[in-house]
Amino acid sequence: MSPAAALDRAALVVDGLTTALTRLRRARLLHPRGRSFTGEVTVWGLPGPPTGVPLLDRPGRYPAVVRLSKGVPTPDGWPDVLGLGVRVRHGADRPFDLLVSSAGAAPVLRHVPLPRRRVAGTYTTVMPYRAGRRRLFLAALADPESVDLGRDLAEVTAAARSDAPRLVLAVASAVGPWRPFGQVSIGTQVGAREDAALAFDPIGNLPPGLRAVGPLAWLRQVTYRASQRTRGAAPTSGRVSPGARSG
């Protein structure tokens, strides 16, 4: 069997398993419990050598949708692999879907999902990207000057009502330090229907100059598309207006 044929067969197996589990759960296969909010991404511009990705290198301000979620999910207050999804509307045909999971900040841990209790902390893309010849990881880091996001989704919602919580956006090489280039602000919670319709595509919805690479990128592409197809969501859905409110 050729490598291409083996890969196609593996994709069929993963697709079938994902479809069955999504039907059984009747929700997202991954990170089913979450809350979505309007938001804004502010890019300050990257100090030092540019990445070659204009969206990361050049200052700008963009509307966004932000989703915070629990991975398994465990009961409130228990450790879990937490997720953060940010859909950035940057004027291109497709948005930029940034998906990051709770992980370690150190080079040896930034590609390993790690459970934790507190919502604020280090989130990384886990999988690497390529920008030209560079191998990059993206992250959302705790902002020490922001209101605390608490330990569960209810506390996140309360924090968003009282203030505009923020997380710092950063980029790093596989072994280099994190370099902050912007922030994401969390605004008003949107309704359950809008949250259910939101469907991220972390492989296809990328800005010019950035591409996902590696086995995890392949696995994410297959599982996300199968799960979204099964629950009737499209990876460009979830267009939340800035004035949307929960209801």
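The above is record 1. Record 2 follows with the same two-line structure.
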Amino acid sequence: MEKVKVGFVGVGGIATVHLKNVSENENAEIVAVCDINEENAKKQGEAYNATFYTDLDLMLEDEQLDALFVSVPPFAHGEIEEKAIKKGIHLLVEKPVELDLEVAKEKAKVIRDSGVINASGYCLRYLDTIQKAKEYLADKEIAMVRGQYISSFVQTPWYRIKSKSGGQLVEQATHVMDLMAYLGGGIEKVSANMSLQVMDDIENIDIPDVTSVNVTFSSGAVGHLDCSFTQPDHRMGVEVLGRDFRVELVGTSLKIVEKDHTETYDSEVDFYEVQDRAFIEAVRTNNQDLILASYEDGLKTLAVTLAANQSNQEDKVIRLSDL
């Protein structure tokens, strides 16, 4: 195809980054945007010379779209993906892909059966430093994977409500859990402890402010993730340990430590731009292999984070094979 005709549903938050990236891609054209907030839809439509809508059904009926970026809050997906697929529209779905695992499984099946190009918003996989780490680890035996996502509280009203966001692990730290699985392999067992410990003065909050998750990988390696929004600053990272080696990702920088040798790498890419370019190119050439994080990958990471919520609620270890 000459240019990929792109639509957006949800134009706030992370969608603003995707909008900018797609608008600067010589192989893509933003033709329509949709948001339930008419003011936001109109603003972004005018900014990118695109038709704006507040009704997704009307946009899908009126426009000939090749691809759709789905950047709505976790609780607001409804049947967006299914409606787009019926039109043969390729999809990039922001994380988390859903809040209900059974619903996400059904969506994944519909997507798989349709054959449309599909991606989930696990943008950190597109880091050059992550790809270097993955290449280094390809022939290594991993013993442990450690992750952290420590930040401040997000003021978005729905974020503090578990039924709308899933909590920090499902909505934010999911990026780190995804990297842990991407670098360490499939996760088989999950156990978690969570508490609303010191931030309970926030109005309407019912999500934990501290979370600790233990995981067991299919290889036998063990892992651990901590997340919290009690801090004034932001720290994120993953560490992979094996015999006489350590791979550290702090932010976007990589350090590979061996017994007598250490190498450090700073990322040289905008991972969001790389992700969006890969998706547009995958649609343009009909090549799913260009996608590093498919909807199915998003489903697997969602399963791990929801299993952690279940483990904390039921005070037991959850096997992913039971979900």
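The first strand starts at residue 4 and ends at 9.
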